[in-house]
Amino acid sequence: MKNIIYEKPFLTAMRIFACVASVLLIVVTSLRIYNTFFTKQRPSDFPNIFGIAVNLVAIILFYLMIIHPQKIEYLAIGSFMYAFVCLTLDFDNPMGILMYGLGISVFYVRGLFIHKTRQKAIIAIIVYICLLCGGFLYSLLLHESADYFDTILEMTGYTLVLSIIIFLLITYNHFIKAESQDMPKILNLAEIPGLVETDVVLLQKVLENEQYKNIARAVYKAPGTIRNRLNKIYDLLGVMDRMGFISTYLGYEIVFEKE
Known about the structure:
Structural class: mainly alpha
Radius of gyration: 22 Å
Order of helices and strands: HHHHHHEHHHHE
Strand content: under 5%
Low-confidence stretches: none
């Protein structure tokens, strides 16, 4: 079963999102650059200029997504950049919370939380709290918020709603996986042209989250040789890379059985 992020409808949708986001960012950034550098009213403070820089980087990332729509980590990078800007330099803007949640969701879908889930979740929460505290202190120093108590309540409310949404999506995902557990999960490499029996050991090691150098040591080959072979295997399986393979075939029994 191929991961949904490698299916054609998903890739097409990501290309469309990337195109729309690119056009929107180009328009917004152009207006911001004009207002900052070519008008008498120049909001040339650090947050505004930093925001322009982030927009330019995001445009590049979305352009890369148009070319490589399966690289959804580009979306996560852009989301975290916007979250940093909004949460630290524009504390009253709820977009920061949404963008941070989007970045975490992308990493979850990409399979980043498969291993050491609890530790990574704790790190994500700590980083989020640090960004919120930093943004509040920055706003406090600049006296930008008229009512800090109301602002904190609003940000807490946005955080709670986003947390509920993420929780429901994760719970639903676990429910779907639980329903499919009764179905046999077998990846027979013999059915895929270009794969050989020795690839079974390599892929089993990958599912065990072994590093390439450890896999190379176990099969008595050079790390570069193992990396090149696994990259070819990922391409034949249509999963793009190591993380894509783990997120797609975690829990599968890998065999090589000819009919």
